[in-house]
């Protein structure tokens, strides 16, 4: 593991828990709704941005549903794994404009 990753992991493990797992779940569902809304809004004027938002909504919804916590449904993923996946989804969402080829368009700001 690179030194930077070890440093970030050490700092993250010592950070205080700011929100409860239930609040985290509510925020996750709100982000799913936001990406779904963006997919609907973008679909008519920028299909690539609409598809990117739909992909982000689907990935986030899948993660939330599979997480073992008060708001999750299936209980397949534990909370620490969910948090790691959240970091990956955040990185993926921010790279979607570049990956989908709408980096220089106004819709890209919603993914960053």
What would a concise description of this structure say?
The chain is mainly α and 112 residues long.
Structural account:
With 112 residues, this protein is mainly alpha-helical. It contains 4 helices and no strands. The protein has helices at 3-14, 21-43, 47-66, 79-100. The longest helix is centred in the first third of the chain and has 23 residues, at 21-43. The protein is globular, with a radius of gyration of 16 Å. The chain starts with a helix and ends in a 12-residue tail after the last helix.
Shape: globular
Structural class: mainly alpha
* First-residue to last-residue Cα separation: 27 Å
**Contiguous runs where pLDDT drops below 50 for at least 5 residues:** none
Over the alpha carbons, how many angstroms does the gyration radius reach? 16 Å
Average pLDDT for all residues: 85
Instruction: List the secondary-structure elements in sequence, H or E.
Output: HHHH
Instruction: Note the beta-strand portion.
Output: under 5%
Query: What's the main sheet like?
Result: none
Extended strand count = 0
Helices, by number, come to 4
Helix content: 55-70%
Layout of strands and helices, then pairs:
Elements: H1 3-14, H2 21-43, H3 47-66, H4 79-100
Any descriptors?
single chain; 112 residues; mainly alpha; 69% helix
